[in-house]
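Bug #2210: token dump truncated for Exocyst complex component 3?
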Amino acid sequence: MSTLDEIEEEAKATAEKMVMNMMQRPGQLEKVEQYKKRITHKKASIEAQLKSAVQGKLDGVSVGLKQLQECLDDVTQISLKMDELEDLFKSVPPLVASLQAVREEDSRHSQYVTAMDSLKHIFTVPESVAKTKQWIGEGKLLHAHQCLTDLENSRDDLLYELHRLPNQSSHDKIMLKAYFEDVEMVSNLLEKQIKLILARTLNTVRKEPTVIVTALRIIEREEKKDQMALQQQSQSGFMPPGRPKNWRSKAFEVLECAVAQRIEGTRVDEREDNKLWLIRYLELTRQLILEDLRVVKTLCVPCFPPHYDIVNKYVNMYHTCLSSSLQDLVQNGLEGNEYVTLLSWILNTYPGQELMGSEELNIDVSTLPPLLSEESMQRLQDEYLQKMESNYMEWMEKTLESERAEWGGDRAPDVEPHTNAYHTHAPVIIFQMIDQNLQVTETISKEITFKALVLSIEQVTRYGSMYREGVIQFKNSHFSDRSRVAYFTHHMITIVNNSEQMARLAQQTQTRHWPPAHHDPPAEAKFEAMLATFQKLRDEAAQFLLEEAFLDLEVHFDDLFTPKWLTSSIPVDTICVTLEDYFQDYNHLREKNFEFVINEAQNLVYKKYITAMLSKKMTFKNVEEAQQGANKIVKEANQIRSFFRRIAPEGVNVDWPFEVIKILAEVLRCQDIEMLSLDLHGVLDKCPDVSEEQLGRLLALRGDVPRSHVRDTVAHVLATRQPPRAAPHPSLFRHITFSDRLLSHFAL
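Reproduced locally. Full output below:
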């Protein structure tokens, strides 16, 4: 009640508010009646809607109650009927025994009906078998199959009835099967004929596609009968003789066998008959697969049922049979370029535009298993690289033997027309061989090309090591008896040139074949090792070249800084003349090598000159004699510098060693012995690698300097020297050593 009161109060308040809104202006009083009528109509309308809604709900409740009553009556009636059924079921078991005779009579009647239905076929079995054979021979396979089906149905129905008997007679079964044994023979004959047709599918489908369609229709009918037989077996345990025939799976076996025979038929040659047998076999196989799959896509698809998926089936069959054939090839072994031919065909030709990737086929081989397993492919690549390595080793050893034979020959090496340099063809031939191998591997894959490049680098490095051993043996043999080899200098020049050319050709090969932006630290280290091998060999061969020249000059260097040296220019004159004679041959060095030999030669000359100066073979007794010696030293240094300037190409610095000799001469030229420390500081600034012993020996050339002053001056200079700077030029003093210690003799 409180809720209704609240609603009534709220309604009155709302009405009062609405009346106040309507009566705000004096003119609205005239419309009171109009407002009253409008509200009265609205109230009547709402009351009518409310009554209608309430009446609808009441009608629905009434209908629901009536339906519930009807359901209750139905449930009661069903309960009564169920009780009656239960009473009736109690009387059923006694009827089983009384109806046994009826059941037996029904079974006999069913057998008689089956026998009557099959009677026509039973009596005509021999005639039907003969007619079926005739139709098979005439190619009327559908008629033959229909007749065979009738015969099999009659046999199977009779056997099924025997199977149903509670007391089965094995004698009856054997007799019945013996009577129908020709039916099995006819079935096998039809199967054989269908297999023969399917074996020629790719040829027959071009001329008589209806023959293929007929064979496939028969196969599908037999598949359905197989399914029915299996279903019957699951229900009754009876399986007709010869079922399931599985003609569809046998059909695919026949197709696969035919594919294998077609692929095998493309191998028309053997290695003994034709060196290009593998190329021919793979090309014939490519043509065969391309044409056969084109026929399958265009002609077989309309003939075969869609669920056969015949295109993919044929693709898989060709792929599998080809894989088996290639595995046999690999197991039998390959030789020489056969590795390249096979690898290139598998990796490029087979999946490429020439075969599977062609516009006509457009088959993605990535969905298929690999033609050869990864292990087989890796083994092929490894064997190919091993044979390449073996060929490299054999050929490079022969090349080295040929080079060594030329070293002991009685004629000078060949001269390059455009450079006038001595050379042999070995470097060019070696890298031509490498380049040819790499070009061949590029037809296979980038991966194997890189492996072959690394292998080539290793073998060239190995050749460089063997070449170096041979060069050292050649040099030692010559120096043991210099009359044995007439053209030692010429061949050593050739070795220097060849070593530099090997490094240059290696860099060119790397530029051509190294994959762009490819980073492989181990391979890069091997390449650097190869370059270092030939760079070192170039340097060593140049040293051997100069070693021969300086053997002739040794006696003249021994004459330097002796008492007779002050009045004679013969030693240095002879040194320059002898070197000029040797450099007539050195002109056959390539430009870079010639510059290197010049730098090495001048450094060696000045080292030996300084060694002779510091060997204490003489002493300048007074200042005048020391100045005379200093002038002669500067004059001879100028003479040597002029010689090297004359023979050196532009850009080669021959002044620096002269400057070193000149500053050493200034120490001898100094008149005030107290100022010697300044000149020694100049020596240290110019040559930071000069040792205490060498400074002492330099001062010891001056007889006017007391021994104690020599020791003290050297010690003072070394104690007050500035920190050494990085030397911009090669060291002249580091390798100058003496057997005795001069300063130890000066010790107090």
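Output looks complete on our side. The longest strand covers residues 414-415. Marking as cannot-reproduce; reopen if the truncation happens again.
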